[in-house]
Amino acid sequence: MITLWNLVLAGIVFLISRKIFGRKKLGKTPPGPTPLPFVGNALSFGKALHLTINKWSEQYGKIYQMYMLDKRTVVLSDVELAKKAYQIPALQGRPRLEMMEYEGVRHGIMLTSGQEWQEQRRFTLRHLRDFGFGKNYMESLILDEVDELIEWLKSQEGKPVSINRKFYLAVINSLWTILSGKRYSHTDPKLGRVFELLIT
């Protein structure tokens, strides 16, 4: 007699076998750690992904592949290789974010690539220049944020810190300055509120 558990087990076995044996033959691919079905190499990342990536680059070489869940990701762990790769138009696209596409979001600077992205980039840069945002203005704006980050790091006196929030605040503050012409201190509660509305 077929039970619900038998059907569930058969479904799981089918999905795993399809994942393992149904993978497209990609020709010659870079070496890399062996992925698990569905989770890829995620269980090997540990708490410090950058250290794992560094370890794998020593083990597999300057070009290797890993799987972020079921997405194959090719890693270039050499600055010169990354610069050369950036010059190749076929490698300048962005990865597809299925979750965003599922929600119906397929356009905008964040999700486009190829011709559409180039047009939006040209449009954005042209109009920013029209508003007077040249190289010197942007450079001074970024340096203001860097100065505040450096002062904050010095104030921590060598203690371990999480800098994610501080980097987000710097980016949001830069964008806010461009849009409104007003810069906030990172300790200003108004900027903290904008951060919470955008990030959470």
Automatic annotation (TrEMBL):
Origin: domain of life: Eukaryota
Pfam families given for it?
Answer: p450 (PF00067)
Looking up InterPro entries in the UniProt record yields: Cyt_P450, Cytochrome_P450_fam2
**GO MF, any single term:** heme binding
Q: Does the keyword Signal apply?
A: no
Which key words are in the record?
Answer: Iron, Metal-binding
Give an example GO cellular component term for this record. cytoplasm
GO BP annotations of the record are: organic acid metabolic process; xenobiotic metabolic process
Family assignment from sequence similarity? Belongs to the cytochrome P450 family.
Under what name is this protein listed? Cytochrome P450
